[in-house]
Amino acid sequence: MKKVFLAVSMIMFFFPGIISAQEIKLEKFDSVGVKGSLITADNLGYIYLVSESTLKKFDADGNLLFTYTELSDGKIQSVDVGDALKILIFNSDFGKIKFLDNKLSLKKDFILLSDLGYPNATLVAGSYANGFWLFDPLTSQVIRHDNNLKQTHSSGNISDITGLEINPVFMTETDNSLYLYDPGNGILVFDRYATYIRLLPFKNLRSFQVFSGRIIFSEGNKLKLFDLKTFEESSIVIPENEEIINALWNNERVFVLTDKHLNIYKIK
Q1: Interior/surface letters 5-18, b for 16+ CB within 10 angstroms, e for the rest
Q2: Per DSSP, what are the bridge partners of residue 64?
Q3: Which residue stretches of the chain are H helix?
Q4: Are the C-beta atoms of residues 76 and 84 closer than 8 Å to each other?
Q5: What is the DSSP letter of 84?
Q6: Model confidence over 225-261: pLDDT tens digits?
Q7: Mean pLDDT confidence for 208-222
Q8: Terminus-to-terminus CA distance in the chain, angstroms?
């Protein structure tokens, strides 16, 4: 996350003609009292919550499994769980990439981006074959390194290529594409070689995920789904009374982070 979920949500994603998102109803399954800034999910169905310098791992039912905290490295800016056995966390205050195992135990290896010549890098994301991406604001480019810390690809100056002044706040690689999110412009899409492809004009999002060929994000009390092949957009109503900080779809569940809770919804 290779646990199999035979739920109606998966039917919808792989056979979208059978069930439309508008027909899906959510029912609250459980609620966990927590505070955090973001949630993410791996491909095994586990949920991860970031709060300051702490990362917590939950199962799909909201049971807390493991906790990692390291105050000396400052706040955790981002978490990449594309490899559930080698979780990447980025502490931007120190330009430090660390790796955790599936029990959130710290591995010995870590990377200081200043050692690679990028002391001002603001974003990091995991990449295929144990590589990683970084965004360097000084040169306005995304740069990929392999597992030997050798640079393999770079985009060139994105502002020069696109004509946009960018200030990205999030980056993720999924299905051999890199998604760089700038709230003022939208989601910039690159291929696995750092070649710019297109701009998806979704602005001012709190967060988003790329799952089963769709961009998924919350807007008000709705979960929006944008199909990357057909460019069609649909939505699911989230019956939530609290303000939504972060929401994501993971197999047969929808997880909603509010100011005080992690609320778990299931498909009716």
Answers
A1: eeebbeebbeebee
A2: 58
A3: 8-14, 158-162
A4: no
A5: T
A6: 999 999 999 999 999 999 999 999 988 899 999 999 9
A7: 92
A8: 23
Q: Is 2 helix (H, G, I), strand (E, B) or coil?
A: coil
CA dist., res. 268 & res. 251, Å (int): 14
Domain boundaries, the chain: 1-33+208-268
Q: Residue 56 in 3-state DSSP?
A: strand
Position 22 scores a pLDDT of 56
Listed residue (127, 96, 106) closest to 55, CA to CA = 106
47/240 Cα distance (integer angstroms): 19
* Measured distance CA(202)–CA(237) in Å, rounded: 19
Q: Which of 94, 121, 123, 122 is nearest to 110 (CA)?
A: 94
* Cα gap 126→156, rounded to integer Å: 19
Which of helix, strand or coil describes residue 160? helix
Is the Cα dihedral 155, 85, 36, 174 positive or negative? positive
Tell me the pTM.
Answer: 0.89
Residue pair 5/252 in contact by the 8 Å Cβ criterion:
yes
